[in-house]
Amino acid sequence: MLKTFVGATHAKTGFAETIKRRQGVVSVMLAVKRRTYAVAAASIFAVVYAILGLFPVSAYIGVSSFLTFREVVSPLAGMLFGPVVGGFSMILGNFVDFALGKPVVFDFLDFIPDLVAAVVAGLAFSGRRKAAVLLPAALIVWFSLDPLSTVAVQVGGVAVPFAWMHIISVVVLAIALALEGKGMLQRIGPWFIAAVTFASTMAGHIAGSIMYEDVIFRLDQVVPSQGIQGFWTAVFYVYPFERVLFTVLGALVSYSVLRAVLRSRKSA
Fold this sequence. Notes:
This protein is mainly α. It contains seven helices and four strands; from the N terminus they run H-E-E-H-H-H-E-E-H-H-H. It has one domain (about 1-265).
């Protein structure tokens, strides 16, 4: 009788373990399938991003190239696909742009500003709040400590930090993430999306500024050393208008797309 009970118990345990193993295999297969779909979708997104990269918005200062509408959708890549796959789509999209004839600016490292924007947005949307705030903050410190940087610009006799708008964007993001964590803001809500878009756009800009220092100034020496101060002063007066445009358009596009995705999932 005892042997029969033990045997039955082992049989049930073995059956349960078999079921668990099969469920584990199915879970892994589903995870792989989801990743495959995500990479495929991100690749399609990269092509759309690359096409938008052919439509200029404003000229780069100091080099013969231009900013484009693709900067509008780089935060959306992170919101849709996360920091890794979203960042991958930015890299892929940049090389598609090169193939389509867009001029190279940063020695084929042109993907870095939009990669940073996508990663910051992806971190914020995936709930990695500390990393989402620390990454742009670290980039601001990196830029400010570089000897080729202009830390402040004199405006009417007042020294205004070059990165004033970047600092504000990090503070806004930190507040939005804290409120979202307490349930006071919805992740797929206009204010949260606007805050993430703002911070991501500014993070991409400070990353681009670092690329200017390391590639355009140091490696390629396009701008002579005596012209660097004047260069940063010109950028200081231009970038707020440019970044407000990208933030507004990016927030509108991201909110519309994310709401559409959410509705399609609810109806599925």
